[in-house]
Amino acid sequence: MSPGTEGSGENGAPRRGILRVFFGYAAGVGKTYGMLEAARAARERGVDVVVGYLEPHTRADTMALATGLEQIPTKLVRHRSLELHELDVDAILKRRPQVVLVDELAHTNAPGSRHKKRYQDVEELLRAGINVYTTVNVQHLEGLNDKVAAITHVRVHERIPDFVFDQADEVELVDIEPDDLIDRLRAGKIYAPERAGTALDHFFTKQNLSALREISIRRMADRMAHQSQDHTLSPTASAGECVLVYVTADEGSFKVVRAAANLAQSLYASFIAVAFEYADDEDGPDAKERHRLTEHLNMAEELGAQVVMLQGDDIAQQLIQYAQICGATQLVVGSAVGLRRLPGAFLQRVFGDAGNLSERLISGVSNTVVTVVPMRDFPAQFSTRLASSLFKPTMADFGRALAAVALSTLGGLFVSEVGVSGYIMPMLYTLVALLFATRAQGVFYTIVVSLGSLLAYNFFFIQPRLSFAAYGLSNSFIFAMMFASILVASLLTLRMKRQNAQIARRVYRTEVLLGSNRELTNAANVADCFRVMASQVIKLTNCPVVVYEADDTGRVGDPQVYDVAGTASDVGSSVLVSPDERAVAAWVATNNEPAGRTTDTLPHARCWYIPVRGKERFGGVIGVVMDADTEMGSFERNLLLMLADECGQALERLSFVRERREMAVRVEKESLRSTLLRTISHDLRTPLTSISGDADMLLHDDGALSEEQKRQLLSDMHEDATWLVTMVENLLSVTRIDEGSVRIEQQPELASEIIAEALSHVSRHASKHTIRVDISDDLLMAMMDARLMMQVLINLVNNAVAYTPEGSTIVISANLVDDPTRAPRVRFSVTDDGPGLGATSPATSHAIGDVKRGMGLGLPLCQSIVRAHGSQLVSQDVKPHGCTFWFDLPAVMVDQVVMQDALNDAEEQIDD
Amino acid sequence: MTNASTGYVLVVEDDAAIRNLVTTALKLHDLAFDVAENGSQALLKVVSRTPDVIVLDLGLPDMDGIEIIKNVRSWSQVPIIVVSARQEDTDKVGALDAGADDYLTKPFSVDEFLARIRVALRRSTASKGTGLSACSDEASCYCNGGLTIDYAAGCVCVDGQEIHLTPIEYKLLCLLAHNTGKVLTHTYILKEVWGQALASDLPSLRVFMTTLRKKIEPDPAHPIYIQTHVGVGYRMLRVEA
User: Fold this and answer.
1) Confidence at residue A180, expressed as pLDDT on a 0 to 100 scale
2) CATH class assigned to B141-236
3) What are the phi and psi torsion angles at A492 (to 5°)?
4) Cβ of B85: how many Cβ atoms within 10 Å?
5) Domain B2-130: which topology?
6) A807 occurs within a structural domain
7) Residues of A with CB under 8 A from a CB of B
8) Which pLDDT tens digit goes with each residue over A204-220?
């Protein structure tokens, strides 16, 4: 650790802060002391250090070190009768020091705080760019929990996920000889003397301390080894080892997950947690178990696992298959996992038994090491999903079974009356039992129906009839086979039905995901994106959704609530958009992390909020409204996060498209500007040279010039000046367009008026040309900026005049374009019968950019004015010779009202 | 042009070169004039010299030209011709709505400038009761070239031929006739004839103006009575008989 490291974050506020952990093996080793010393050293270097939180019972000599350091007052939280002091995150964010000291990283915050755990507070500070010094004891690391508990016989409840420790930027091991620590304890430096005695007896034995010390040093070494390899715990990072853990709802599964995580860490392996999904229809007593499974999976995720949910009944087979697919080298399972209580090995076989799971796994895998973690010290829990509803006797199943038996019996009685042989009876029973099995819920049905069928068959159809007595070996065979076939066939039907349901669920989700992708790709704007996202989330979760759109600065705007279709808003929308809820959304927006219900951050909110973001752009926040009993599994959560990512990408794509379009407009303007600059110097210089030259001659004339010559000079000057005026007019128009389309004020204008006005401004040379106006309708109106459009017409006519021989005819026309498929347009055209654009210049609109043919910037300007009106200036050669320039403008149809007006007006006149 | 030489023109212009150009032109045509170089000077001279026409540059160093128009309009109807280097129609419309009668955009030709002065002087003298109108009773009758309006009978004749106008066309014509020589903005016309100035009524105005022109103009493509000011409005021109 170099003394200047924390200084590197001193001036970069938006950068992530640096986390420096003081790590020790027990209380009293001097972590807090070390932290304070480092803080003082930093302050002497001029770093802005404040104290965010110090344990209040800190020893006096340690406290002495803290004097002189600025302390941020802690927040007082009342919980029941207790007054708890908690880290005041907001105060620190507001104060924005360079370094803040936060003691006891593993602390659990008081209920009602923003985050459940203090390390999450610290995360937020780091995200805000504040460097944090903190302290951690070895027994607080989640992954070491079992090891430490085994040594000390004390379970620590305040724990931090290992990744917090592993991802810390700097970890400093604070070490002391166990003997010295015990001396310190005896001296009352750690606990008050009366407590010190008990502590010495129970925890602070030399043996314990040495073991803890060893664990912490080893852990530290592991961390360094990881760092030197630049190795992260990301599941995809490792190509070699892969640890797969089977997570169940058993209470002991915690231990299995931790063991697997430790294994993964020491092997530098990727880490995958696999669990089997509960079917949706299972509720009631299951809810608890499902909740526990979710907890286990969350822990696995915290320990760096990638969670995968599988579906199906044959656990062993599926685990083996999955292990092969993902190339797992290690498979970790708990020992108590199984179906040992199932009656009979036969049933287990049929149901793809997990009974001897470890044995089946071992026999099934080829390249995978199977590790079995004993869970005996935990209360045995009958826990596979199958147990819950599949084996639950229900009245409905019982009724079905009875109905099946009764129906078969009735049918049997009927056919025997008709005289059909009694040997088809077993088949009849089997068939009816199968038909009813497609509706049945559990194994209970199969048992009842097979026994019932057997008894009824025996009672009604086997001699002696109407008694349970039966004789003969063949009857015994028939009974046995009938029982077995009904049982197996019903079980298989049942299993197929369950698998179908699971497949349907999966297919539906896949469908929703694919559909989202497709719809998001098609979304034309941001609002569309969010609408699609909301409707997909509703489809997946069946919960109302709140959407907060973010503006360009990343701030969230007003929320919009989407209800589940068909349900009246049972949740008060005002609650969903209350200031509290908005604050959670705002937090999500600033921190770019999910928050709200089911998370550890602001868990009292009504919704679970997830950020919608692309790679660079923050799009908004989506809140899924959850009721108290809504349980959201890891699979659903990941699905929603994936959807959010997809939405974020779609948003980003939209903003890219917009940027590209803006860029294109800018390029267009830029090219116009450069064309302008190129032509302008030449176009302005020539007339200016001639004006100043002529004026100079006239000024210094000492009688040498004749009257005639003087007149010629004066008329030249006048002509050049007039030319310059046109030029300046064009220049001004260009600036107007360059300033953006805001300045283009379009109004309905009469084509005839505009053309007449334009003609009154065309150059004087036009007198040698014939100019004709051809307007189909005097009342033809189009939307345009009158002044700019006049400019276009003037330039086009001047252009035609300049490039056609004297005596040519120029026709200006305006006609309504009759095309029923599009909005009505007015086509303006200027046509001449001169030589045309010529073969050298292709008759496309590109020729318009050719300034050599135009009068200076005339034509490019026309093109950009017409473009600014949302149209295109097109040039074409016409037959037999000549060329035409035309463009379309949206027509203003003389509205019905106006015509009515005029008609009324006319009637009134007649009345007069 | 001799008959208009009685007019007295106040030129308000801060740019020396333009002032020189304008005064030279006025001098050449025997028009009496005075000059003011800024707004306050102009206001003083309007009060003390009571000019027949004011030529006002909008870009004055000390005050906004529109303020001057408003100030003058609060007590005098003297014709005001605005001269502006600004291109934007909104400036012109603003000045016209504030009470100016006409506008000129720099660069302008001397001929055009003098023509505008003449029109304004005629308006000025007409309002003083010495108009050129051939009609004996100005209040009940309007004559302009071949166009006559008999207000009392409510009938309009062009070249002695009576023509039929719809009520709106008639209102429109009367409004323009009443303000002969003055540029009327779209907004003003809409307010006066339709009672409200909605942008959506603009097409109506254009429609009625076209039909009116068809009826009174000898050649509607080249109107002699009603002049179009693109982006600004319309004006009734004084036509020599």
Assistant:
1) 87
2) mainly alpha
3) -65, -40
4) 13
5) Rossmann fold (3.40.50)
6) yes
7) 721, 725, 729, 732, 736, 747-750, 752-754, 756-757, 773, 778-779, 781, 786-787, 790, 892, 894-895, 898, 901-902, 905-906, 908-909, 912
8) 788 888 888 988 988 88
